[in-house]
Each structure stands twice: as C-alpha cells, then as structure tokens.
Amino acid sequence: MRRRESGRVLGIVVFLALLAVLGVGAWYFFVYTKSPQFALNQFFAAAKANDSQKVEQYVDKSGAIVSMLATAAAMNPNMGAIDPVRGIYPGYGGNDLGQTQKVQIQSVAVEGDRAKAQVVMEVLVNGKTETIRPTYVLVKGDDGWKVHVQDTMFGSFNEFVRPAARQSLVRQLRSIANSPVGGMVRQQLQMLRPEIDRYPQFAQVLKEAGLL
Predict the structure, then answer these.
(1) Strand segments (E) across the chain
(2) Does residue 142 sit in the same domain as residue 201?
(3) Residue 88 carries which DSSP code?
(4) Percentage of residues of the chain with pLDDT beyond 70
(5) What's the pLDDT tens digit per position in 53-101?
(6) How many domains are there within the chain?
(7) Are both 101 and 146 inside the same structural domain?
(8) Residue-range definition of the domain harbouring residue 88
(9) Does residue 129 share a domain with residue 39?
(10) Alpha-carbon distances of 105 from 4, 50, 61, 118, 204, rounded to whole Å
(11) What is the pTM of this model?
C-alpha cells in the first residue's frame, strides 16, 4: 500500500514538474522572445561578438541625424568610425570609445510601441574600467523590438562619449567648422536644428565646435 501511495505521489510530482517546465518554455517562446529586453540582450550579444549581420537585425536607424552620418560615411570611407551603432556598444567594430566588459539591464519600462531600458555598463577605457549608465530606447515594429540608434546614442551622449573622447570630438568638429566646407556643414545642421535640439548634450558639442 505504501509503495502504491509513494508511486502515486511521485507521479503527481513528476506531472507538476512537467507542467512547470512546459509553462516556462511557453513563457520563453511566446512572451520573453517578443519583449524589448530579449531584443536588447540579442543586440548586446551580437555586438559583443562583432556579428554585424545580427546587429543589423536588432537596430532601427531611422532619424535625420543618423541618416546624415550614414551619408557622410558613404561619401568618405575614412569616416566609418562615426557610425553611431558603434557608439552605443563600446568595442563593437573598434575600441575608439572603449571596450565593454560587462552589461546589466536594470529595468525596462514599456509605453506602447516604445521602451526605455536603464542599463549599467562597465567599459575599459585606456586601461581603466569606467561605469556608464545609458538609457537604451527601443521601438516596436512589424518585425519586433529594435534598438533605436539615434535616440539611444544622442539621448545618452555624455554617457557613451566620455570626457576625453568628447574633447577630441570637439577639436575635430572645430577643424571642420574652420575649413572651407564649414559653411556648408552649418547650413545642413541648421536644417536639422529641430531634431538636434531634442538632444541637448549633443547640441552642446556642436555649439562648442562652432557648428551651431
């Protein structure tokens, strides 16, 4: 009798465990894989592995500023380093802005088709580990959640571009402002002024360089 009861209890336990496993599996495939946190983790993993093809699957490059930078890079191959996708994950495609050592998503807040993720990153810069706290912005489209490059990069500009890199950038932009093409660049930036003003930290850099 006791063996029969033990077998029945064991069967119930196994059944409940199986239900739990199925529940977790269903949650993972039907809920988590369609969440902004999953998309952000996929982006981080792809950027860490320098898998450009997969990175492209999880980024949204819409926005006038990103389009302008893409056009500039296409016209001048030497300007590939200005790719803002590289900026939102230090170490992806180069170590200009450091090398990401650790990433932790602190929280994700979803509002309709947009989400904001508070992230803590440890980045190795010139042999020293620095902690940055950018906000990653994600947008939901027909093919799922993606990292919005422009809102992420320029919304957290001073987090991604540390003081030394910022000073170097200002010097480079100032040389452009003082060059023969400076006037043309100013005109183009003025056309984007409403968009640029959405990102005060980035706008301040352009002002210091004499381009706004």
Answers:
(1) 59-60, 99-111, 114-125, 128-132, 135-141, 144-148
(2) no
(3) T
(4) 80
(5) 999 999 999 999 988 877 766 655 555 556 788 889 999 988 878 899 9
(6) 3
(7) yes
(8) 33-157
(9) yes
(10) 49, 20, 22, 6, 28
(11) 0.82
